[in-house]
Amino acid sequence: MTSPNLDKLNIVPFVSVDNMMKLVLTIGVETMIKGIADQIESDFKRWELFDKTPRIASHSKEGVIELMPTSDGEVYGFKYVNGHPKNTKEGLQTVTAFGLLADVDSGYPVLLTEMTILTALRTAAMSAVAAKYLAPKDSKTMAMIGNGAQCEFQALAFKHILGIETVRLFDIDPVATDKAILNLKDSGLNVIRTTSHEECVSGADIITTCTADKQCATILTDNMVGSGQHINAIGGDCPGKTELHKDILLRSDIFVEFPPQTRVEGEIQQLDADHEVTELWQVITGEKEGRTSDQQITLFDSVGFAIEDFSALKYLYQAIKDTEFYDDLDMIADPDEPRDLFGMVQRAKANL
C-alpha cells in the first residue's frame, strides 16, 4: 500500500472536515458518491476475503457509540461512530465519525480522516448499489421519509446512479423539509413536498425511510406498500429501533449486509431468528438473484457494515493523492533506533 506521504512513516495523512468539504466540492458530490459506490461493489465481490464481525457497540439510554473494524488481509480499517438522536435538539449532529486505515504488514496507520461527511456519502452510495440490483427497472420516483442530514445525499445518489427524476419528501418537522428543498433546488430533481407518510409513498417506485428516533416508531404500515416497490430502509438502526410494520417484512424479499448484525439492529429484529434473508454480496457476485419480477416487494434492510466504511476509506486514500486536501500529522513515534523510545523522549528536551 503506497501512502500519499512516501518519505516518513511517522507522518500520517489527515483529512480534516475543512479538507473533506473542499475535496467533495472539487470532485463533485455525485461523482464522489459514484466512486465510493464502485469501490463498494468491488469490495463486496471480494466479500469472503474480509474479516467480518458485528460492530462493537456501547449503548446508553441516549444513544450508542460503536467501533466498526475489518481487514482484507492487506489493509486494516476501522470507524468510530456514534448515534444520538437527542443531539439535534441540542444543536449537535446525530451522527459523528472518524476513521483510520493501516498497513497490515507493518501495523502503521496510513490515513486518519473525519468520517461524518464521508459516512453520509458512503451510506448514499451503499443504498444506490443495493437499488441497482433490487429496485424496479427504470425507476423514476423516490419517496424520502425523514429529511435530515442524510436526505440530500440519498437523493443525489439515486439521481446519478439510478436515474431517479422525482423525489417526494416528508418529515414530521417541516423545517427539515424546507432545508432539503432549498439544498436540492439546483439538483435537477423534481422535488415535491408532501404532508403525510401516505401521500409521500403514493406512486413511488422506491421508498427510503431515514429516521433516527431510538424507539420502535412505525412509519410505514402494511397498507402503504404496494407490489413492485423497493424499500430502502436506512434509519438509525439499533436494538429496539424499527421503522416498518412487521407485516411488510413478511410480504417482502429481504436483503441484508451481514445477518448476525442485521438480526440485532435492523428491521428483521422483529422476525424469527431463522427467517430467510439474502446477503447482498451474493446478489452482486451473481450467486443469488435480486429482483425477479415486477410484482416483487424488495427490502434492503440496511444497517451499515464495516466493509462499506473500508471501501469509503480506500476511495478517499486514493482521492487525496496529488492534492492539497490533507495535512501531515506527526502521529507515530519513530526513533532512529526502534528500541530507544526513552532516549527519543529525553532528546526532545533540547526543543523545549
From TrEMBL:
Similarity-based family: Belongs to the ornithine cyclodeaminase/mu-crystallin family.
Pfam families hit by this protein: OCD_Mu_crystall
UniProt superkingdom: Bacteria
PANTHER family listed in its UniProt record: KETIMINE REDUCTASE MU-CRYSTALLIN
Gene3D superfamilies, A to Z: NAD(P)-binding Rossmann-like Domain, ornithine cyclodeaminase, domain 1
Protein name: Ornithine cyclodeaminase
Entries under SUPFAM superfamilies matching the protein: NAD(P)-binding Rossmann-fold domains
